[in-house]
Amino acid sequence: MSLYLIRYGELGLKSQRVRSRFERALRDNITSRFLKASKECRIESDRGRIFLWADDGPFTHEILSKTFGIVSFSRAMETTSDMESIFKLSIEIAEPFFKEGTSFAVRARRNGQHPYTSMELGKETGSAIFLAYQHLNPKVNLTNPELEIFVEVRQNRSFIYTEKMPGPGGMPLGTQGRVLGIVEKPRDIAACWPIMKRGCRVIVATDNPELAQPLTAWDPDLKIVQPGDLQTLADAQRTEGITIGWSPEIFDANQDKLAELDLPVFFPLIGMADADIEKLLAKINSQ
Asked: Are the C-beta atoms of residues 206 and 184 closer than 8 Å to each other?
């Protein structure tokens, strides 16, 4: 099974108690998606990082790139914190990327007590790689290299990788309550997505379930219900807010219809240009 190093962002700023709860929700969201696909995985965590072991690289990349709360992830290889072990694995990982004149840089960081600093680790690892491939005339370029080799040491373990792939960021799904999403046309799913990114479970109300299907790639447990009276529907689904994809013009013409609602209504697209909404829709629909 391949090892994936998963990074999260703002949830790491929470108190220890809240961070633990949110991190547990993120782990559960990842593992539940593997279970639904009848695929195996193993997961563990350390402060600021989640470690996932899984097969089927394309599937894993697809899942991690569409799991809210993940800022970025890398397919990595693991060794000890011993410098010689780090040198050996770094040289091995770099080998497929080196050709004549390849420019490279080593980005090193560490967490814990070690007999070397991060700067020393990066310098010595870079020297080892340079000497291993000196017959190819490598070039050190710390500003804009063709190849970046990342070395992350955490206590007595080291993780080495060459790429950081983006996740959607935000907060883990299900950590911030439930919101009713009104979906009448394609742009309305763009109003649901930012609310989901903030950690809310969105209950989609639509008479055309196919419109909401792109959101299931981001929440496999997405619930879709028939539309109706907003207050009645929100009460029945126990939601704590409503999200609507209205433009400013539609908002001005219809805001009186919302005056009697006793829960907040969100308009995530109200300040967005049409071109930006189209970009967001393209991201939501990406495969």
From this structure: yes
pTM, rounded to two decimals: 0.89
Asked if residue 190 and residue 146 are part of one domain, the reply reads no
The pair phi, psi for residue 149, each rounded to 5°, is -115, 115
Closest among 80, 89, 7 to 48, alpha carbons compared: 7
- CATH value at residue 247: 3.40.50.620
Q: What is the pLDDT of residues 47-68, one digit of tens each?
A: 788 999 998 889 999 999 999 9
Segment 233-262 shows an average pLDDT of: 86
Token pair in block for residue 163: 């790429």
**Domain-located, residue 161:** no
| Paired residues of 74 in beta bridges | 5
Please tell me whether residue 167 adopts helix, strand or coil conformation: coil
Of 238, 231, 232, the residue nearest 223 (C-alpha): 238
Q: Does the pLDDT value for residue 287 go beyond 70?
A: no
Tokens of 13: 């700023």
State how far the Cα of 126 lies from the Cα of 129, in Å rounded to an integer: 5
What domain range includes position 43? 2-78
Tally of domains within the chain:
3
Give me the sign of the Cα torsion angle 149, 152, 158, 162. Answer: negative
Residue 169 lies in a domain: no
